[in-house]
Amino acid sequence: MKLLSIDYGDKKVGLAIGDTASGVASPFGVIKNRGFKNLSNEISILCSREMIDKIIVGLPGNTLAKSPTETEKKIRFFILTVEKKVKLPIEYQSEIFTTIAARKLSDNKKDDDDIAAMLILQSYLDKL
Q1: 93: nearest Cα among 75, 67, 70
Q2: 3 to each of 14, 63, 88, 112, how far by Cα in Å?
Q3: Which of 38, 66, 85, 98 could disulfide-link to 116, CB 3.0 to 4.6 Å?
Q4: What is the dihedral of CA 63, 75, 112, 92, to 10 degrees?
Q5: Tell me: the pLDDT tens digits for 35-54?
């Protein structure tokens, strides 16, 4: 099964692709966030072109918080726009500390969003 991982950001969105057969995730790139509609269109095209079977979305999780953060609300709303465009299963994966880890792994500290997406997806694959 081929998977796409999304690390949503207000300015940039990191992408990674992996599959369940190999159990390996790889960075796929970073796209500019030009609004939910444009992003969902780009992701829909990407899913079709790359024959994606499932989308994994990084979600900041704070188990101590009593209510969702503004970022979490924004990500969930964004995913609602994606769901309208692509008819694929979508799952959430915790992205706690992925940005920090991505910065340590990345050569380009300004464009490490795809590394964060890769870490989100690898974490998901490791649980399978």
Answers
A1: 75
A2: 14, 26, 10, 19
A3: 98
A4: 60
A5: 999 999 999 999 999 999 99
Record the pTM.
0.89
- Percentage of the chain surpassing pLDDT 90? 74
Taking the domains of the chain in order of start, what are their residue ranges? 2-127
Quote the crossing angle between the two packed helices 98-105 and 113-127, to the nearest 10°: 120
Do residues 46 and 83 make contact, with C-beta atoms less than 8 angstroms apart? no
Listed in sequence order, the DSSP H helices in the chain are 36-49, 70-85, 98-105, 113-127
Q: Domain 2-127 carries which CATH code?
A: 3.30.420.140
